[in-house]
Design a protein that fits this description.
Blueprint lengths: L8 H4 L5 H14 L5 E2 L11 H11 L14 H15 L8 E4 L1 H13 L5 E6 L4 H8 L3 E6 L10 H7 L4 E7 L11 H14 L2 E5 L15 H4 L7 E6 L12 E4 L2 H14 L5 H12 L3 H22 L14 E5 L8 E3 L2 E3 L4 H12 L1 E2 L1 E2 L8 E5 L4 H15 L4
Helix pairs in contact: 3-11, 4-11, 5-6, 5-10, 12-14
Length: 406
């Protein structure tokens, strides 16, 4: 019997992006005249650097870029990405191993779609970025969450990964610096995890989009270079969105063995074809240029990071480690759950972080993302990639409200 449902079961099972949903709700309330401050979206408040915009303007005037280009990316951009990867990670790749995608999110989806068969299990360290499990399920895979809490710095161990592995495990997803926790794995731990995956014959998909956003002298380590034992069973995902304040330009990439890239490019040729040429030329200017812009942004992010963490830790019942990377604070609010807060329509006792986030938005008009979006309940993620004034005002509202818990 054919299915009678209007929406396919595969698509109906997808949860919407929680971070984008929170951001959309905050913007809708703001458009309605409410003074909402959003800590939801991971989006730098800085404009894209001028030299990158200039490159895009020049490309837009060039008729060569008004036409289709190769589905896998402009050759000059693929070459520049390969050179940038060697410069920043010490990882040598050929331009033929690069696929340019419509943002990092498409690279994530295509990596899983290319590597997974139905029933393949993927080890997914948690807390995780909200899109990972949905992309795994869309590819027919089974996400296996491996939770690392604040007591271990939100970083999984080889022992945990080994305990979660089965004969169906095909792949490990690795993300450092981490979204949502800001954790940065030390080089020795990156190498240990990589060697373990290689010994087990697993693929590793490593998301390195926050590679340049580290603080306090902490250094980013790519698992591709830390564990050469992985050979050609490592896939690197990256993009220009976070480093160069280019979230709206939609340029990411995937680096993998030639056969994987060929298959993923075939998929993209049917899915979306080439990334917009103007955006690709902007990305070329970004990855070929200096890192001055990100250093300037990091100075502001560092200042905001310290202010946010100090404010959160001043609240009774909240514990927030200082993140070493990305631009998120991940606050443990389990000590607040079940306590009484003054709600818009009388006292409320939120039992989950999702309920607490809803109360915060409705009562003091501050948007945060609940831990349920990234794994277990009991946590809140706050982005500090917003202006200093908004951050100060938002944290004042938040500390004032949460400090009234009974």
């Amino acid at each position: 019997m054919p299915s009678t449902g209007r929406i396919s079961a595969r698509i109906a099972a997808i949860a919407e992006s929680a971070t984008l949903a929170v951001d959309a709700k905050a913007k809708a309330l703001k458009a309605a005249g409410r003074p909402v401050i959003g800590f939801g979206a991971g989006e730098p408040d800085f404009p894209t650097p001028g030299y990158i915009v200039d490159a895009a303007v020049q490309a837009a005037r060039d008729p060569r870029f008004h036409r289709y280009s190769p589905a896998g990316g402009l050759p000059e951009l693929k070459k520049a990405i390969a050179e940038k990867t060697l410069r920043d990670s010490g990882y040598t790749v050929d331009p033929a191993q690069v696929l340019v995608t419509n943002g990092g999110k498409q690279a994530v989806y295509e990596a899983f779609a290319t590597l997974l068969n139905p029933g393949d299990e993927v080890l997914l360290p948690a807390p995780y970025w909200t899109t990972y499990p949905e992309a795994i399920r869309l590819a027919g895979g089974v996400p296996v969450e491996v939770f690392a809490g604040p007591e271990q710095g939100y970083m999984v161990t080889v022992e945990q990964l080994e305990a979660a592995s089965t004969d169906k495990t095909k792949l490990l997803l690795f993300c450092s610096p981490s979204n949502p926790t800001g954790a940065v794995y030390p080089a020795a731990q990156v190498a240990e995890i990589g060697r373990w995956a290689a010994d087990r014959g697993l693929w590793v998909v490593t998301d390195e989009i926050y590679e340049h956003l580290t603080y306090d002298g902490v250094e980013f380590t790519s698992i591709a270079t830390a564990a050469p034992e992985l050979g050609d069973k490592v896939v690197v995902l990256n993009g220009v969105a976070k480093t160069y304040a280019m979230t709206g330009w939609r340029v990411g990439w995937m680096i993998a063995a030639p056969d994987v890239i060929k298959a993923a490019t075939n998929l993209q040729s049917h899915l979306s074809s080439n990334v917009a040429n103007v955006s690709q030329m902007a990305a070329l200017a970004a990855v070929s240029g200096p890192l001055t812009a990100v250093e300037d942004m990091k100075t502001a992010f560092d200042r905001r990071r310290r202010a946010m963490v100090a404010a959160l830790n001043s609240i009774d019942g909240v514990e927030c480690p200082t993140p070493e990377g990305a631009f998120y604070a991940y606050a443990d609010v389990r000590g607040l759950l079940g306590r009484e807060f003054p709600g818009a329509n009388g006292p409320v006792r939120p039992q989950t972080s999702a309920e607490l986030a809803a109360v915060i938005l409705e009562t003091v008009e501050v948007a945060v993302v609940p831990g349920e979006a990234f794994g277990p309940s009991g946590y809140l993620r706050l982005s500090y990639a917003l202006g200093d004034d908004d951050l100060a005002a938002g944290m004042a509202r938040l500390t004032g409200f949460l400090g009234r818990a009974q």
